[in-house]
Amino acid sequence: MLAGIALLSTAGPFGTDMYLPSLPEITRDLGTTDSVTQLTITGFMVGMALGQLVMGPLSDRVGRHRMLTVATVVWLAASVVCALAPGVGLFIVVRFLQGAAGGTCVMLGRSMIADRATGSAAAKALSTMMIFTAVAPILAPVVGGVVAGLGDWRTVFWVLAAVGAVEFVVAVFLPETLVKEKRASGSLSVVYRRMAGLFRVPAFVCHLAAFAVGFGVFFSFVSGSSFVMQEELGLSSTGFSLVFAGNAVALVVTNLVNARIVGRFGPAVLQRTGHAMLVTGSVALLVVALVDPSLPAVVVCTFIATIGNALNMGNTTALAMDLSQGRAGAGSALLGAGQFITAGTVAPLVGLMDDGLLNMALVMTVCAVVAAGAGVLGRRRG
């Protein structure tokens, strides 16, 4: 079951990144502008966030399996329409629907794990799932570039449709994890009020903040590192690719290690370790930016923060989902939406100042300190 859930969790990264190399070709083929074509990314991301918020609480009421199969069908159909889209307007609308379907798949994956496991067992399963979500954003642009080279941008979406077909088959054979006796009852308004009720659980709110803002550390690095390392520090594009790949490997290895040791130490201890590394890496980067910016120092600092992010994501998710038992879909939805809201917030902040390294380090440090503080409060209140 875990392998199937992990596969479904890659829908978002592949839907976001696989067609990025084809954006200039899409602009030319559909006769539009770069800024309008960028809205196809925005539409997908908004769909990812809203899809989770709408479908998460609903899955607590109707179950996971039926909703998962519907989401994969919508993904498949949206991919086909994107491949055939005659104009950019329809393309943007359908990308929103594709994003909503992808977000639903990711949200349901977390929820299904929470239905079957808690504590260290849940953290172990979530770490395994996050190995796939860490690798997918690295592979997706490469695969997309190869596919577009063999065909065109529409071929990329035919491949995404094929991925949707595989995910549908996987979804059909996955078991229902939320038995009828444990489903939420009442009207839809009651179900959504139950989601809002999670904001009255202080420990959950703290872990939600630690998860979302902690992710902001990593996304600040993703948003600003290309400019900082290549334009300011003189790293070649090949060198940057190697550094980025190294961070991806760090994410994978850390999640593998976390899955092996979480049963011994528990998610709370490993969350604390992750937050310590987030703060250490970010503050050290800020000192480097202020005192003596150098490429090796920047690489080491961001590498430490990346490892901290990996420990934060899996363990904090497990702690938050433990507190949302009985409404795991709602809890998973809030985690996912918080992650996308943070990503959308920190990306423009990283580019506000002329000194890209200093600005990136400042945003990372603020996010790291807030996440660590939220984690401390969450552990005390949980």
From TrEMBL:
Q: Which UniProt keywords apply?
A: Cell membrane, Membrane, Transmembrane, Transmembrane helix, Transport
Quote the subcellular location field of this record. Answer: Cell membrane
Highest taxon of the lineage = Bacteria
Q: Does the keyword Membrane apply?
A: yes
The record describes its membrane topology as: Multi-pass membrane protein
Q: Give the UniProt record's GO annotations in the biological process aspect.
A: xenobiotic detoxification by transmembrane export across the plasma membrane
Q: Which GO terms describe its cellular component?
A: plasma membrane
Q: Which residues form the Major facilitator superfamily (MFS) profile domain?
A: 1-382
The membrane-spanning stretches of this chain are 35-55, 67-86, 92-113, 125-150, 156-178, 198-222, 242-262, 274-291, 297-321, 333-351, 357-377
> Any idea which GO molecular function terms this record carries?
xenobiotic transmembrane transporter activity
**Principal localization?**
membrane
**Pfam name, any one:** MFS_1
List the InterPro entries. Answer: Efflux_drug-R_Bcr/CmlA (IPR004812), MFS (IPR011701), MFS_dom (IPR020846), MFS_trans_sf (IPR036259)
PANTHER family per UniProt: MAJOR FACILITATOR SUPERFAMILY, POLYAMINE TRANSPORTER 2-RELATED
Family designation: Belongs to the major facilitator superfamily. Bcr/CmlA family.
This protein is called what? Bicyclomycin resistance protein
Name the species this protein comes from: Corynebacterium provencense
Which lineage is the organism of this entry classified under, starting from the top rank? Bacteria, Bacillati, Actinomycetota, Actinomycetes, Mycobacteriales
